[in-house]
Design goal:
One of its GO terms (molecular function) is glutamate synthase activity. The chain is α/β, with parallel strands linked by helices. The chain has 2 domains: about 25-55, no CATH class; about 90-420, Aldolase class I (TIM Barrel), CATH 3.20.20.70. Helices cover about 35% and strands about 10% of the residues. It has helices at about 1-25, 35-40, 45-55, 125-140, 150-155, 175, 205-215, 235-245, 260-270, 290-295, 300-315, 330-340, 350-355, 385-410, 430-435, 450; strands at about 75, 95-100, 105-110, 115, 140-145, 160-165, 180-185, 200, 220-225, 250-255, 275-280, 320-325, 345, 425, 435-440. Strands 4-13-12-11-10-7-6-5 form an 8-stranded parallel sheet. Helix 12 packs across helix 14. The protein is globular and about 75 Å long. Mean pLDDT is about 90; it is low at about 460-465.
Length: about 475
Amino acid sequence: MLASWLLMKMMDPMLDEAAMKMLTEDYPDNPFLMVTVAEKLSPRAIMEAAMRSELGKELTRPLGSPVVLSPWDSILLNPRQLFQLPYPDYTAVDTRTVIGPRAPKPLQLDIPILITGMSYGGSLSLQMKMALARGAALAGTATNTGESAVTNEERDNAKYLIGQYHRGGQLSGPEQLSRLDAIEIQLGQGAWGGAVDEPMPGDMIGEHLRQTWKLATGQGATVYARMPGKNNTQDYIKMINSMKEQYDVPVGVKIAGTDFLEYELAVIAQTEADYIVIDGSEGGTAASNPTLQDNVGLPTLHSLVRAVNWLEENNLRDKFSLIITGGLTTPGHFLKALALGADAVYIGSIALMAAMHTQVAKALPQSPPVQLALYTGKLNDKLDIDQAAGHLANFLRSCVAEMQLAVQAVGKRSTSELSREDLVTVDKDLAEFARIRYAGSPRRPEQQAAACQSPARQNQEQPLPLQ
C-alpha cells in the first residue's frame, strides 16, 4: 500500500503536467498529436515503419495479414422450422468427407476440417508439428507436412498425412511419397502472394532439420518460385499426370487465389489430378512480408465462389474435390464455405492458437505466443506436446458439434448436403456474385415447390401448403 501511495504521489505531477499540456497547447507542441497521427497512418503502419527503419531488410510477419476482405459475416444460414422440419437428431448429422473419391485409395475423413500445410523448419518446430498431427488424429482428420519432408515424428503421430510435393524439393521420391495418404503438389500460397522465392540461410538450419532435408553443413535451402526443371505449362501437366500414374493415393494441386484463377483452373483441368486446393489472400504463414500478405492475391471467399462456378460451368465439379483455405477461423466460416461448394476446409493460424491455448502464458507478456510454435521460436522447447494435441482435438470436436447443430437447423442430414440454397446475404452485390438469395427479397408461394425438390428433401415430411 505504501509503495502504491508513493508511486501515485510521484506520478501525479507528471500526469497533471501532461494533461495540462494536452488541454492547452496547439498541436505542434501537444503530445496528443500522436493520437491523430496514429489515426491517419494507423498504429500498424507506424510500427512497421519503425521496424523497417531499424532493420533495413524485408519484414517477416507470422500468421498472415490482418486485412480480411472476405465478407463471411454478411452471409447467414437458412434454418427451417415449419414448411420443412429440422433434422431430428443433431448427433446423427454426418460430417464425413472424401477427398479424391476417384483415386484407388481415396482419403476418407471423419470431419471436413483439415490442418493445413505448415512446414517443419520453414514454419513450425518439430514439437508443434507432432502436436498438430496427434490432435488431428484424435479428431479423425488429416494434417499436412507443408513445404518440408516427411519426418518419422510427424508420420508416427498422424492418422492421415498429406504431403506437399513442393518447389523446394525436400519431399520427393518414392521413399517419401509412398508414406503419404495424399499428395499435394504445392505451386503457390496465399500469404506469399502466389509463388516467390523463399530462401532459408544455412545458419538457421539445425542438425535434425539438416538431416531431414539431406543438406550439407552450412548449406541453405530455397523454395523457388517455379518447380526446378519445369519451364512451361506442359511440363507441369506431365508432372501431375506422372504422379497420378505412380501412386494410388489422391494427388492434388494447390494454388494461391488470384484474379487469373480461371486460367489456372483451365490448366489443372487438363490433368488427372484428384483434388484442388485454393489458398486465399487471407491465409497465414510464418515468414512472408507484409507487402505480399496485405496487397497480393484474391480473397478466400471470392476464390471459392469463382472456382466452384468455373468447375460447374465446365461440367468438372464431380471430377475434382475442392479444399479451400485462407483465414477461416470459426465453425460459421467452415459451414458457409461448405455450402458455397467446398468439400473441405484447411485451417492453420486458428489451429495453432487452439493448440497453444493456456500455454501462451509461458510466453506472455514478454514474448508473443508464436515463440512457442515457430521453428525459430525461442520458447518452442517449452511446448507440452500432449497438452497441445488434446486442446487442438477439443477445438475440432467443439467446432464439429456446433456445425452439426447448424446443419440440423437447416434441415440437412450431413455437412456434404449443404448448398447455396442454405445461405442468404444482406449484401445485394454479394448475393448476385455468390448466387445466393438476398435477404431483402421476399419469398413467393410459387418458389416453395422448387425449394422442396432438392435430393436432401426426399425423406422430409411433406410441406404444408401456403395460404
